[in-house]
What we know:
Elements: H1 7-30, E1 35-38, E2 41-46, E3 59-64, E4 67-77, E5 88-97, E6 104-108, E7 130-134, E8 142-146, E9 155-162, E10 168-171, E11 187-191, E12 366-370, H2 379-390, E13 396-402, H3 410-417, E14 424-430, H4 436-440, H5 444-460, E15 465-469, H6 487-503, E16 509-516, H7 519-522, E17 539-546, H8 558-562, H9 575-582, E18 588-595, H10 604-615, E19 622-628, H11 645-655
Parallel strand pairs: 12-13, 12-19, 13-14, 14-15, 15-16, 16-17, 17-18, 18-19
Antiparallel strand pairs: 1-11, 2-4, 3-4, 3-10, 4-9, 5-8, 5-10, 5-11, 6-7, 6-9
Helix pairs in contact: 5-6, 10-11
Amino acid sequence: xxxxxxxxxxxxxxxxxxxxxxxxxxxxxxxxxxxxxxxxxxxxxxxxxxxxxxxxxxxxxxxxxxxxxxxxxxxxxxxxxxxxxxxxxxxxxxxxxxxxxxxxxxxxxxxxxxxxxxxxxxxxxxxxxxxxxxxxxxxxxxxxxxxxxxxxxxxxxxxxxxxxxxxxxxxxxxxxxxxxxxxxxxxxxxxxxxxxxxxxxxxxxxxxxxxxxxxxxxxxxxxxxxxxxxxxxxxxxxxxxxxxxxxxxxxxxxxxxxxxxxxxxxxxxxxxxxxxxxxxxxxxxxxxxxxxxxxxxxxxxxxxxxxxxxxxxxxxxxxxxxxxxxxxxxxxxxxxxxxxxxxxxxxxxxxxxxxxxxxxxxxxxxxxxxxxxxxxxxxxxxxxxxxxxxxxxxxxxxxxxxxxxxxxxxxxxxxxxxxxxxxxxxxxxxxxxxxxxxxxxxxxxxxxxxxxxxxxxxxxxxxxxxxxxxxxxxxxxxxxxxxxxxxxxxxxxxxxxxxxxxxxxxxxxxxxxxxxxxxxxxxxxxxxxxxxxxxxxxxxxxxxxxxxxxxxxxxxxxxxxxxxxxxxxxxxxxxxxxxxxxxxxxxxxxxxxxxxxxxxxxxxxxxxxxxxxxxxxxxxxxxxxxxxxxxxxxxxxxxxxxxxxxxxxxxxxxxxxxxxxxxxxxxx
Length: 668
């Protein structure tokens, strides 16, 4: 008869079988590298201190009252599989109540030391670059964001969710879900495969048909084996206490299809569509006159743009719907001076914002000015006065040049290189003497000038600087074929100038495309043809102004100015919404902005500056604001921040907002 296995032999067999089983299970885990992580911290902060109706255990993002609500998320990516960059990562938020906004954006947050129980308008961390956007349906169950570019491997990652298109998103908080609805909490799914693996509730691949069964033949019982003789000299096997050294299986919870997984799963948001209408209706006070169909009504020149401004001033501002009241002649009120702060005000644990590639700040936004516009005051004096009045150094100094002027000038280089007050230059050049089409074809005089300009910059100014060519081209387009000033002619001219300067070694140039945000131009059939191309445009900018006369087109707050709409163009979604869909990889700038004074509503300037502080976080792609400070534009309108004492006080407060504190001493 057979001899039973001895204790040692049984132990060897058991260990061998367990090792085989472990190899099978381990192999299955190795082929399924997905992780599902619930937010380790989440919460929201509002810029007004208000809270939405309902429980605090929720997440909200979007416009709230006259301010903004921002949702903050934090995830801890750990484990052996996080030692390398994943192939894909997605964040899912589940709608708790109400309709979803038409545009939701998610930004990186460099600061990760914040606590969810201390998030408020004073302690909320500053936002970095936008990395993804979603355009959900109003009643979609959830929203997904592709954050693959942000997840590098093991570490702690923080994000902010905002809504610029109107409305307020209301989502489940991790603390506000029951165990049965665990996946309604903010979730990060990470995959080391080509795509995030499906989870329960998502369509699964078909199950292959069962294999047919076959009869099993009867086998005779095995014969008895003789007893094996003892083997002298065999060493003792290791004791049982050594078993804990077997490897752990930490990744078993990550296998899909575990009990408790909900049967429904969010659907992918629709693809970005720049023609989608915003959820916020257009203002009822907008002009109803339809936009022109043949371009500007002012006859353009035969050899160049419309009447140019003086050398130091920008082009004309767009026409307005109503006559503008001339600026009063009473002298402006000058506010007290104060020293520029030497440190940037930041929240606890909020890292210092610095300059990244292409002068994009790592968080926050750059603060700048075009001082003394439409005046004869020397620009360095105008800048010094403006900084004294507003109580801080400007991060950007905006200057205008035209024709064959060589820049930066010695004065502009001194402004940029002031060791106590470093600044960035934004240099604006408008060509003269040749049409856009002629320049694009290689006009000899223009080529010679560009080569001299490139040599000057190479030899004298190596610091990175912003540069644009013929800002606000909309005002000078002549759509007739052969005019030399079509939208296509502009695009080709812009490309030619940027490429020629770069080819001549001006590699420190950061190019900016500057539009005139005037809706009758923006809705022309030729307008999109102006864009020169992503390869020659580093930043996208537009010029826009707020009016202070109640009922006048352009009257409102910062949110209205950023996403201005018109009843004459019901499909226009607002410039920010359009640009976010059309140019999702570009940082945005207000190359010119301001508030026009009204003697009948003098308090509006202060109200508007306060609204910038409350609503700026709705627009996380906006990385620079450059004020246009003038006592009188071509129509006599006054945008000086010193025009009213309460307006100056509000502007000074605005300049001290943490959002606008970027350290320029650490450059890329």
